[in-house]
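User: Please predict the structure of the protein below. I'd like the answer in structure-token form so I can feed it into my own downstream comparison script.

Assistant: Understood. Taking the following sequence of 523 residues as input:
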Amino acid sequence: MSTRLGRQSLLNLVGYGVGGAGQLLVVLLTARALPLADAGRVYALISAALIVAAVLRLGTSASAVLFLAREGEPDEETTRRIARMVLLPVAGVSLLVATVGVLVAVAIDSAALAVVALTLPATALVEPLLGISRGTGRMLPTVLADRAGRPLLQVLLLGGAWLAVTLAGGSLTVTAVVACWCAPYLVGAVVAWWSTPALHRLRTWRHGWPRPLPGEAREMVRFSASRSATEIMQMAFARLDVVLVAALAGPEQAALYTVVTRFVVVVQLVQQAIATATEPPLAAAVAAGRRADAAELYRTSTAWIVSIVWPLLLLVLAKPDWWLGVFGPAYAGSFAVVLPLGLAMLVASAVGSAESVLTMAGRSDLVVGTNVVALVTMIGVDLALIPAHGATGAAIGWASAIVIKNVAALVLNTRGPAGHPFSGAWLLAVGLPVVLVVALPGLLGALVPAVADAAELLGLAALAVTYVLARRRLRLDRLVAIPARRRRAAAAAASPDVSSSASPAASPAAADPAVTPDPQEAR
């Protein structure tokens, strides 16, 4: 296996990490700047807006990638022809819904809802616009306008607004915080538009949009319909429970639930970063019938995920107050919410990118089916438990969905070309953090309570040293960059790598939101 895969995975980890850190800071600033109930109102309103935007996108972002990528190097006329089919329906429907939203906001005197409605067209259009740039082979606009740029701009706006009102002796309002969340989508839409020369060089708006080729519009509608259902389902997984908690248990519980579940998003970022880099060579291995290579890719990437994620999850479960207190005293003592999701994410990370592997094997229909079952289960559990148990009930519902999705994909994969994800490296990756992060520090802390925290830190340090010493057995040497003097020899020994690009144009999975949902919008 080429070490280029490791470099791609590491690069994706860094890229997703920047945006993930920005998003985490936005949640942190919101939690610290607003009372619990007001923070819950912000989280619920933003979650509802993102669900509506996912519906309004109509699956067109994936269509833009697919239809442009298959053109090879599309000229400006071709790009505008496909852009017309992608953008006009989304723009028309989103403007209509935004108008209705503004009227409702005026009727109920809600300035925050008015802000969300006014920015809704940009929120809906930014991803299809970025899909056009990705379809023409440019990934940088997606990073600048959305993945990393948007969360960082939200941090700057929210932090600046909080500092300004604090110096003036005031306090932030829900409307101001919502505006700081929503305004970067306007900037992102402008950057995304400008990133495609075929769009911003357009001189004649009336005659500059070529009509679709015969049958092309029908083909896009069919493709977009299936992708739209998948996108909506993925966004429902990510956001619907926040809305349900706010509606059934109140905004305070919604705020608590949103903040306490931040660690899940961090884990999803790690998994998605590695999965994005693994998909192209995995797809190539499956297509060429190289079952051994496909199995090796799956097992190696799973060992990476477990090595990175399990120490974090075990620390989250062992010391929840270490990180919950950062958000404020109102969020401490929420272990009942942390526990089910922590255990569910241990299962999800232990099976690696099971859903992605299943899709690369050509069974995206099975992924959709298991996702439907998981979503229905989550909604049913939420409706049953949230009224009485609030955030804890929502956590149980989401945890149930996570386990169903991932275990089903694991079982279905066992008969596929990549097989199962378990190996000696996987067993070592599981065992080391269990011993060094949980067992030994827990035993020492029980014997000498005064050194419990120090024992945990010592265990983490010992784990880091062990990872360095056992990097080859854990296959971590393939994830980090190898020394220059060894690269040529390693490349000569590696198996053929048909594609090393993690861009959507290179990967069949990148056009399918069921495979690569955006973790930046996970919460």
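That's the full token string. The first helix runs from residue 3 to 33.
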